[in-house]
Amino acid sequence: MDSFGIGCADDAELYGDKGADTLGHICEWFSKNREKPLYLPNLAKVGLQKAAELSRQKALAADLGAAYEKGAYTYAQEVSRGKDTLSGHWEICGVPVNFDWGYFPDKPSCFPQELIDAIIREGKLPGVLGEKHASGTEIIKELGEEHMLSGKPIIYTSADSVLQIAAHEQSFGLERLYELCKIAFRLVQPYKIARVIARPFVGSCADDFTRTVNRHDYAVPAPEATLLDNIVAAGGNVYAVGKIADIFAHRGITKHYPAGGLDKLIEATVQAVKDAPDNTLVFTNFVDFDSSFGHRRNIQGYGEALEYFDSRLPEIMTLLQPDDLCLITADHGNDPTWNGSDHTRERIPVLFFGAGTANKELEPMYTFADIGQTIAAYMGAGKTLTGKKAALF
After folding, report:
1. Going by DSSP bridges, is the β-strand pair 72-76/360-361 parallel, antiparallel, or unpaired?
2. Other beta carbons less than 10 A from residue 224's beta carbon
């Protein structure tokens, strides 16, 4: 559940995030602004409320709608530097980030001129638009019409270690956008940038421009073997749903299910579980919590998306066989009540249910890598690079 934090981490003050609490603040907002409190009964049954209150050391503003019934729950803290997508996912899979990513400064013309010149030259472009920190949805409203008239792609960034390129699928061309992002990805490597993201959109004018599900991330591969690599090396399978394949640079992936939007991601996850043979990890990133609501500081939208996800969770639960293990977790926080539009440094929920799980509270995990170590032990894939212990086995 991308960005679903449950209380600020011990080192949150170093990131300007002391007091951030994605779930807690959404609960508070719903209790004050809607007749019915936030309603997440299926997540509560597998320990979400218990894990959140363990992390926060205080009760949520309201019950989530059901009593805890099953599974092993706790929270995990991150040891990687930064609070970005790659760091969180890599650490979950046993490879914490012990170096600093590069970032572009929050100022006009934020990219080095030599980088922009090289992108224009190698991409055979008439120029570029943007060159600043921006919301992806707002910048296409601002510059999309000029982009279509001029043929200049929109290049922007955010508080993440990322360069993003937006272009119209028809007037610029989707494949051309992908090729341009491949060029940009190569060119940003000296700047230690984690990802270049293609952001295609459609529409005829600012009033109806819409980003499509054809987003593609070009990401730096993890510097060491991850849990995914180890599973495949041991003869298992990794079925990646949504942007997981991009996050891991398509390494350690045996099958990819592209999908976008909560509904389609759930449907793709259900299909992947149905397709999966024994000894398979099905790994889904539900990106909308982060991209559509956390970064947009849309509290109501985030809460309603949580309720929708919860309402469909039984579709996945009913597919689990007696020896299947299921995990619900996150990669960082993104408190929609917080200042700015960046991720927030938070603890994440760790909710295991299914095979090998006793109904109990687990010890807190002081690195996300303990999650990967637990899955590695369950799947017999060998220990990950880091992670002190397997929580269940």
Report:
1. parallel
2. 14
Cα radius of gyration (the chain): 21
Partners of residue 237 on adjacent β-strands: 280
**What percent of the chain lies above the pLDDT cut of 90?**
93
Length of the chain: 393
For 193-245, write each residue's pLDDT tens digit: 999 999 999 999 999 999 998 999 999 999 999 999 999 999 999 999 999 99
How do residues 245-279 score in pLDDT, each as one tens digit?
Answer: 999 999 999 999 999 999 999 999 999 999 999 99
In terms of DSSP bridges, do strands 325-328 and 210-211 run parallel, antiparallel, or are they unpaired? unpaired
Q: Is the pLDDT of residue 389 over 80?
A: no
Helix, strand, or coil here: 219?
A: strand
Confidence of residue 308 (pLDDT cuts 50, 70, 90): very high
DSSP code, position 15: G
Q: So what's the pLDDT on residue 265?
A: 98
| pLDDT 10s digits, 152-175 | 999 999 888 999 999 999 999 999
- For residue 124, the Cα-to-chain-centroid distance in whole angstroms is 33
Which are the contacts of 80, defined by CB distance < 8 A and separation ≥ 6?
87, 88, 90, 91, 96, 97, 98, 368
**For 130, which DSSP code?**
E
DSSP assignment letter at 147:
H
CA dist 213 and 215 (Å) reads: 5
CB atoms within 10 A of CB 104: 23
Produce one character per residue of 179-210: b if its CB has 16 or more CB atoms within 10 Å, e if not: ebbebbbebbeeeebbbbbbbbbebeeeeebe
> Two tokens at 103?
């970032």
Residue 154's pLDDT is: 98
Q: Which residues pair with 168 in a beta bridge?
A: 201
Decide: residue 113, CB within 10 A, 0-12 exposed, 13-18 middle, 19+ buried.
exposed
Angle at 176 between CA 183 and CA 200, to 5 degrees: 100
- Is residue 393 predicted with pLDDT exceeding 80? no
Helix 174-188 vs helix 113-123: crossing angle, to nearest 10: 140
H/E stretch holding 199 = strand 195-202
- Residue ranges in 276-389 assigned as alpha helix (H): 288, 299-317, 369-379
Rounded Cα distance between 53 and 280, Å, is: 32
